[in-house]
TrEMBL record:
Pfam families: OB_ChsH2_C, zf-ChsH2
UniProt cross-references to InterPro entries, sorted A to Z: ChsH2_C, ChsH2_Znr, NA-bd_OB-fold, Thioester_dehydratase-like
Protein name: DUF35 domain-containing protein
Domain ChsH2 C-terminal OB-fold: 73-137
Boundaries of every ChsH2 rubredoxin-like zinc ribbon domain copy: 40-70
Species annotation: Ferroglobus placidus (strain DSM 10642 / AEDII12DO)
Length: 156
C-alpha cells in the first residue's frame, strides 16, 4: 500500500485494514551522542557553550539557538539544584508503589539547562526547592549510553 493520495475533504478518510509497516531510527544527534558516550565511558557530564554569547546548553547542542553560532563542549559537574519536584505514590497503572518516587526538575550547575530525573536516598518530606543534588551513576560496566545510566540524583 502506498499513501500518495491527498485528502482534502476529511469525509474522504477511510479505514485501513491490516497492519501498516512503519520504520524509524531515533538519533540523539551529534551533541546527544557525545553526551551519552562521555556519560557511559567516563561518567562525565557535558554541556555546550556558545562561542559568541556564552549561553551554556544542557543537554548540549552543536549550535546556539539564539544567534546560530557554533558551540564548544564543556565538562560540568553533573550537580545541580532542585527547581521543582513531584512525589508519585502510585504507578502509571494506578497501583500503589511500595516506596514513593520523587521526580525533580534539576537546574544543572554551570549551565542554563535543566534535567528531569528521579531523586533517591531522600524522603519526600525532606525534599525542597533549592536543594543541592548530585548524580548517582550505574557502575561503569553496566552503563549503556542512556539516560538511565544516571540512577538518580541524591542530596549533595
Ligand atoms: Zn549564542
Amino acid at each position: 500500500m502506498v499513501f500518495t493520495e491527498k485528502i482534502i475533504d476529511p469525509r474522504e478518510l477511510k479505514h485501513v485494514e491490516g497492519k501498516i509497516e512503519l520504520y524509524w531510527v531515533y538519533t540523539s544527534g551529534e551533541a546527544g551522542d557525545y553526551f551519552f558516550k562521555k556519560l557511559r565511558d567516563e561518567g562525565k557530564f557535558t554541556a555546550a557553550k556558545c562561542k559568541k554569547c556564552g549561553h551554556v546548553f544542557f543537554p548540549p547542542r552543536i549550535y546556539c539557538e539564539f544567534d546560530f553560532s557554533e558551540t564548544e563542549y564543556v565538562e560540568v559537574s553533573g550537580e545541580g539544584c532542585v527547581a521543582a519536584f513531584a512525589v508519585a505514590y502510585y504507578d502509571k497503572n494506578g497501583e500503589k508503589l511500595e516506596k514513593p518516587e520523587i521526580y525533580a526538575l534539576i537546574e544543572m550547575d554551570g549551565t542554563n539547562g535543566r534535567i528531569i530525573h528521579l531523586l533517591g536516598e531522600v524522603n519526600p518530606e525532606d525534599v525542597c526547592v533549592g536543594m543541592k543534588v548530585k548524580p548517582v551513576l550505574k557502575p561503569k560496566e553496566e552503563r549503556e549510553g542512556k539516560i538511565t545510566d544516571i540512577l538518580y540524583f541524591k542530596p549533595a
